[in-house]
Fold this sequence. Notes:
This protein is α+β, with helices and mostly antiparallel strands and 716 residues long. The protein is 48% helix and 8% strand.
Amino acid sequence: MTGRTLRRGKHRLLLWPDVEADGSVDTTTPSKMEVQDEMGRLEKLVKKYERGDILKSDWLDKLTFRKMEEIHSAETEKSENLFLYIDLPRFDFPVIFSEPETSNHPITAATHTTIAPPQPMATNLLPNLSNDLALWNVIDPDIVHDNPVEDKHRRLVRSHRSSPYDRELKPNAKIRDELGVILNYSPSQQLSSEEKDLIWKFRFYLARDKRGLTKFLKAVTWRDSFEVKQAVEELLPMWTEIDTDDALELLGPSTVDSRVRAFAVKQLSRADDDELMLYLLQLVQALKFESAASDQRSSRSATNAISYEDSGLTDFLIGRGVQNPILGNRLYWYLMVEVALEDKVMAKMYGRVVFKFMNKILESEGGSERRELMRRQGLLVETLAKRARELRTSKDPRPKKIERLRSLLADSRSNLSSMAPLPHPLNAGIEVTGVIPEKSSVFKSNLFPLLLYFQCSDGSEFPVIFKDGDDMRQDQLVIQLITLMDRLLRKENLDLKLSPYPVLATGPLQGMAQFVPSKTIAAIVSEHGNLLNYLRVHNPDEGSVGTSGVEPSVIDTFVRSCAGYCVVTYLLGVGDRHLDNLLVAPDGHFFHVDFGYILGRDPKPFPPPVKVCKEMVDGMGGAQSPHYARFKNFCFTAFTILRKSANLILNLVALMVDANIPDIKHRDVHEQIQEKFRLDLTEEDAIKHFEALLNETSYLTVVLDRIHDLAQYWRS
């Protein structure tokens, strides 16, 4: 409704029992009847009478109203409609009523006001809170506007005149405890207005605490030029060095000011190449949030105090990639995958980064030769993808596919069986000279991935699985996180023998992974009866005590790796576990493959949160064995260590939200992972919680062993 006067006086509204109200402009539940009845006609006359448009006559009015009551009673008895009579306030003069028309979608306030300034209100850009129109059906165009009362309160609390005194402020014991609680919040925790004011009040005191920067930046009002200037130009340079997890948080989409992002890049520059490799995948994603890459961010005009200049992240990554060929090789493939994705705007941006990277390589010493190696890597991947696609789409049986593959590899025209030394795309530290045709094969699965044995320059072999038609970016992410967790555990002197195999996506629907000679638990049980028999065949030691005739070091490796994967798959919410994607190598290394379901998603109903099957427990000697007790202790220790780095893992996953990875896009990944860490519990209570989950799973394994139908969970 636009350009009308505000309703006043008495109104009769048609009711719609058991029908959901429709608040749209072209409503299906109107308050007026389509065909006016006798009562509607008479009520219009009454309104005219009350306004004075009809002359009053006492004797005639009494007769008329008595007759109208009779008509009303008669109409009510024969009508099936229900009406609601309302009496609105009356005004001496007409009041113009206007409401902007909006789509019938719910909106909410901009809750993520942590660092980004508010956008100008545009009804067609308002974020959706829920698609459930039964719950969120009311449009409020003013909900995104600032509350003037709260704004005035903030200005009074953060009076500019108090700044000189704030520099010397120190909290008492009670406030220090309150600040400590706030600093321990997870990255996704929103601060209340009172908490923001408290952080702002003691901002100079907090500048010596590395945990305080991200919380302080959430407390800054980014539309206030004074606060922005003091935060970025005065406090940021004097702030103590922050940890990597906080630096990664500052490179997320909520950080708009490029000076803050540049500060985060500077902190990351302290990391060595090995550590940087662990975060490289997310840092490439963070390029999407740079000012030059984001039209949405560059269009914001809330305040001139915010800087949208380049933060230097691109130059930092390129510089480190040029210095270290192994890191640069991985950076090249991460960028090339983004160039190949469907988002043309982002693909163009990443294309410019690749172009700049190649030019910097050419300017470096030996740059032409290095650029040629990258070109040859691209040609190798393109050739393998073409051959894999041909074999996948052919109707030949698997033996025929294997024969064709070996023939193609042996053909000298393919330049695959013999080539000049080339750093392998999957691991640039390994130099290969060709593919061994007679050892290569085709796996028996829907996509028929290739098993390729590469000959290395040092005489060793490097087996690789190459897939075409499968998005391997999710597997790549999971393996990266497992590699990170393995490093965090080793840093605390806990080696759980995780040994994650490397995975590299070379395109949106292709990629490769290192092949680890091993067998699935399903195949082991079928061939050997149980895991102990399998390990005993490969590592016999009849003289050992308490290891069932298996070499003690092999049992130790098995127990440790089971514990490691038990914890990491729980934290990452890995689903769809069965005996065909749980593998054991001859040396006792246990590991998982196929991470198509993560963060709690699982195609099977009621999956156990901790993935430990009966066959694994039997391989340790049973639930009452000392090896199983060690397994549980390893689990508790690993869980405790990884909880300390929860923010790092949370921020790494959060940076992947816009990567278009199936199980991460459009989901609250913070909530999914944070729930696993149970940061709300003390360390002791968290261990008890994990032990309860483990005992619940152990009980389940007994049930699975005795009830055949449930046992099929582990046998897919």
